[in-house]
Amino acid sequence: MLSNLFDGLSMKKILVTGGAGYIGSHTCKALSKAGMEPIVFDNLVLGHQWAVKWGGLEVGDLLDRDRIVDVAKKVRPEGVIHFAGHSCVGESVSDPAKYWRNNVAGTINLLDALVYINSPPVVFSSSCTVYGITNVDLISENVAVEPINPYGETKRAVEIMLKDYEVAADLRHIVLRYFNAAGSDADAEIGESHNPETHLIPLAIASAAGDMKALKIFGTDYSTADGTCVRDYIHVTDLADAHVRALNYLLDGGDSNLFNLGAGVGYSVREVVDAVGRIVGSPVPTEPSVRRPGDPTRLVADTGHAREILHWKPVNSDLDNIVATAWRWYQMRKQVLSWPGLGADKLDVS
Ligand code: UD1
């Protein structure tokens, strides 16, 4: 018992902003499995209280500077993983202020709070969207960054800010540029739960399950084998593992760095739709639609850098496994959260 108490006392505290969200909650589970104590800071606007299961929750908004300073001083984390932010490309075009305010101004408050507590290292969730439209087959970290929407611009801005804070305040950091996060926890304890949902896989599942009308295929005239966009789908559990590795790398004294996180394999929208039909056991009704503004034709990661430096390799990101875990969570969520049905948490698929 004494040794349990000692273990508890010696656990590394990690502050996880946005830890009640999709990738954040999977990362908290991975941190806990790795023997660390995740402490979530989340305003619960996009995140869910039920997804905080592996450590404490501090409800707060990064725009409330005093609150994040208080939490940082109280928790005194040894490391920080920063997920909190908005990530819908379309919304960022119609409401850029929301993105600059939450993603950039909120991050300034966070980084200032961390400077007050001697700059613990930070892992930051960025996105492949910073690359904009590129003709490169496999995108490495050296490809030029040229975002084509405000969401991507805010991610780029924070990447730059982190470099400046490092010069001024020794804030070491790792930037992780995710490709398309997908799938759910193998135990179906947590999973993807956006409201409204905009992502391909959960929408295709809802369609196949008869909970939604035909899935719109945004663009069938792209210069790809079947005319639909190609993306690199990376299992959220593999992403979570990469965060733990990135954090440990920094905690071991590693220098700031930047990594693309994808499976390194591209699938077209039609290939994903076929996989969903196969796994759910009923075809996805689809309807060709116009291109969605801002969608690049193809985005697939060169994952060599993360493999070499973090010794990370995706092991759950086979497309069928991604869809199978997403489907399992979809069914579980329906039971656990009474969806579709009453409640604020219902999926908006209209
Ligand atoms: C986007 C961002 C990514 C960000 C993610 C978070 C880009 C290039 N990518 O991913 O950086 O982290 O959002 O939200 O900005 N599709 C349909 N019908 C649908 C929904 C999607 O055909 O109803 C297609 C899209 O056109 C796209 C693919 O499916 O080609 C994947 O779309 P989605 O799941 O929304 O992710 P991205 O837009 O690729």
Note down, in words, how this protein is organized.
By secondary structure, the chain is of the alpha/beta class. The protein is built from 11 helices and 14 strands. The chain has a 7-stranded parallel β-sheet with strand order 3-2-1-4-5-6-11, with helices on both faces. Strands 12-9-14 form a 3-stranded mixed β-sheet. Strands 7-10 form a two-stranded parallel sheet. Strand 5, helix 6 and strand 6 form a beta-alpha-beta unit. Helix 2 crosses helix 8 and helix 3 (65-75) packs parallel to helix 5 (96-116). The protein is globular, with a radius of gyration of 20 Å. Residues 340-350 have low confidence and may be disordered. The site of uridine-diphosphate-N-acetylglucosamine has 23 residues, from helix 7 and strand 8. Uridine-diphosphate-N-acetylglucosamine binds next to helix 7 and strand 8.
Beta-strand level of the residues, as a percent range? 15-25%
Number of strands: 14
Structural class: alpha/beta
Task: Please tell me how large the radius of gyration is.
Answer: 20 Å
Helix content: 40-55%
* Overall mean confidence score, pLDDT: 93
Order of helical and strand elements:
HEHEEHEHHEHEEHEEEHEEHEEHH
Structure ligands: uridine-diphosphate-N-acetylglucosamine
| Morphology | globular
Q: N-to-C terminal Cα separation, in Å?
A: 53 Å
In short:
This protein has 350 residues and is α/β, with parallel strands linked by helices. 40% of the residues lie in helices and 16% in strands.
